[in-house]
Specification:
45% helix, 7 strands, globular
């Protein structure tokens, strides 16, 4: 897809973070943007900012874990601008807990948004792309779709699922010569507010205690680890840069998109371990390892 001007982009989780970065980059490329999010105040603020800068965008409140909500998003897009040319499945939450201890509510919430949200949107938007013989799907996975860090089982599983879905979709679109491209976006350290994604957890999926820890990495919400991670995120990559990378990837029909080099050696070590037939390496979590050493800025 060489020329994006005038085309239609749908971005889920578009009110903040990477989603907002993509929406703004699309608008700057003269695309018409459908910004979707479950959190209404920042959703309308983002769309207002895009319009103030001369871009064309609409806001659609959407819970990607709900099929009827995603159907309504597709219909709102079609009514406003016509069928989507670019679909960015970006909505995501951080589900914490080990495999043996994470609540079923946490599994349902995390997989519902991170994985079922991608499934729902692909099912809703792909048929029209295939019928027209053109389009592009960007699925936001994570470097944790290639690596496992203990203590965040639901998140790991959801992002591995997005990677597998993206690879499968790419192979299918290529085999069937549909003209639909696929990009698997694997962010590393990007300045988003995913550490606070519990703010949008539905009440019906709260844990038994009636609340959930805001700390993805520790049971103690005020832990030193959390403070250090928050500081690390403050100095991480600006989401607007990721948005520009996504535009370039769509134009180039690029499948893999990693945002930084912090995790290259971790991934290489994992691949070498698989080739050697060894078990997954034990040790500190990836985040703790990063905190224990210097980071490139």
């Amino acid at each position: 897809m060489r020329d994006l001007a005038g085309r239609v982009a749908v971005v889920t989780g578009g009110a903040s973070g990477i989603g907002r970065g993509m929406a703004e980059s699309f608008a700057a490329s003269a695309m018409r943007v459908v910004v979707a999010d479950v959190e209404e105040p920042p959703l309308h603020e983002t769309v207002g900012s895009i319009r103030a800068d001369g871009g064309e965008a609409i806001a659609v409140t959407c819970d990607v874990s709900s099929w009827p909500s995603v159907e309504a998003l597709r219909d709102a897009c079609t009514d406003a601008y016509g069928p989507a040319d670019v679909l960015c499945n970006n909505a995501g939450v951080a589900g914490r807990g080990g495999v043996a201890e994470a609540s079923l509510n946490t599994w349902e919430w995390c997989l519902g948004v991170n994985l079922w949200g991608v499934i729902h949107a692909c099912r809703a938007f792909l048929p029209a792309m295939i019928e027209r013989g053109c389009g592009h799907v960007v699925n936001t996975a994570s470097v944790l779709g290639h690596l496992c860090s203990p203590g965040i089982g639901p998140y790991n599983v959801s992002k591995y699922g997005v990677v597998a879905l993206s690879e499968t979709l790419h192979l299918e679109m290529q085999a069937e010569c549909t003209g639909v491209g696929v990009t698997c976006l694997c962010p590393g350290l990007v300045a988003t507010n995913i550490l606070d994604s519990e703010r949008n957890r539905p009440e019906r999926l709260l844990d038994d205690a009636g609340r959930s820890s805001l700390n993805v990495f520790s049971n103690d919400d005020e832990s030193e680890t959390l403070a250090a991670v928050r500081e690390m995120y403050k100095h991480a990559m600006d989401p607007s840069l990721v948005g520009d990378m996504v535009v370039e990837a769509i134009v180039a029909d690029q499948f893999w998109l990693f945002t930084d080099g912090h995790f290259e050696e971790f991934i290489a070590q994992r691949h070498r371990g698989i080739e050697a037939g060894g078990a997954p390496a034990s040790g500190r979590s990836i985040v703790e390892t990063l905190l224990g050493g210097p980071l490139e800025q």
